[in-house]
Design a protein that fits this description.
This protein has 5 helices and 7 strands, in the order H-E-E-E-H-H-E-E-E-H-E-H. By secondary structure, the protein is an alpha+beta fold. GO terms for molecular function: N-acetyltransferase activity.
Length: about 170
């Protein structure tokens, strides 16, 4: 539970050192070439084609870009992760959350480029997202996960509903 303790502690301790850069956060790129940095941002001005390429890289089904744009616009929070080398910036991670702006938030669309997986960057992306949600006094954070990534979220302290499954879904015919 060290991940969650770091989000609730007054010292803002983190296993990933961050350095404020306006609304961005930077860490040294793990295993990257010369002077690459990883930068986190909450700016929603994202090239939708670049986001589509990122989603393609992990094998997600394509979604209509007009709907993706609308989902981003109506999200409570968007956190992106970029590889920056000099003036070149490449989108390597994306996440977003919807919320009631008071108690609850649900995390959606967490994606990290396959070349950057297994290096702690997905954890860092989730840390930035949850830290921002906590700074807005959101305390109930939920998410939906595909079976092959459940252990990733369990390692971050997420758990199945301890009272049993309370969620239900309705899908059109």
């Amino acid at each position: 539970m060290g991940f969650w303790k770091s989000l609730f502690s007054p010292t803002e301790a983190s296993s990933v050192p961050t350095q404020a850069v306006s609304d961005d956060y930077a860490i040294n790129a793990i295993g990257s070439e010369q002077s690459a940095r990883i930068v986190f941002s909450t700016d929603r001005n994202i090239d939708l084609y670049e986001l589509e390429e990122l989603c393609d890289a992990v094998g997600w089904s394509r979604r209509p870009l007009r709907k993706v744009k609308k989902a981003i616009q109506h999200s409570f929070l968007v956190v992106t992760m970029w590889e920056q080398q000099g003036s070149r910036r490449r989108l390597i991670g994306f996440s977003r959350a919807t919320s009631d702006h008071a108690f609850n938030a649900t995390i959606w669309d967490v994606v990290v480029h396959p070349s950057f997986q297994g290096k702690g960057l997905g954890k860092a992306l989730m840390h930035q997202l949850i830290k921002k949600l906590r700074s807005e006094d959101i305390s109930n954070v939920t998410l939906f996960a595909d079976p092959h990534v459940v252990n990733f979220y369990k390692n971050l302290g997420f758990m199945p509903d301890p009272e049993g499954i309370k969620g239900m879904f309705w899908y059109p015919d």
